[in-house]
Amino acid sequence: MPDLAARVARLRVPLGFIASVAALWLAHPTWSSIVLGAGLAAVGEAVRVWAAGHLEKGREVTMSGPYRFTAHPLYLGSTLIGIGFAITSNSLIVGVIAVLYLGLTLGAAIRSEEAGLRAKFGREYADYRAGRVSDGSRRFSPTRAIRNREHRAVAGLAGVVILLALKAWLLL
Prior knowledge:
The protein has 172 residues and is mainly α. It has helices at 4-26, 31-52, 73-89, 92-121, 123-129, 142-147, 150-171. The mean pLDDT is 91.
């Protein structure tokens, strides 16, 4: 039986959709909460795009771009998006849902992913995590970001902001 972290990590996308639908239903956005929250979420998505434009998932230990500064820039970006979404929603309940979702699923994903990277790349990954990076000079590639399907996250974020803006408009 797979360990709990791996199971939760695999469920993070479907759980995210369920949490997002509940959060959209419970949201009470205002124009100011939309501007503030969507701005933070946009910063988070920019971090994710930057990371995805450097990542060769499963092929190597990526050490360039944001990976020079943090081992998990995609999850950092996702965290900023989640906090931005909670701010945009203008709802304490949505904030609690976002914190629980992010804490449980991203924590599990990080544990599961790190175990896989240690198993696959051994010493190279250990050196990277210890700050002994040999080369972090790869250039950002929009093609690589698209290959990593980050355009889907951009579209999803835009859709959520549009839905929250429509809800704010209807609540006027």
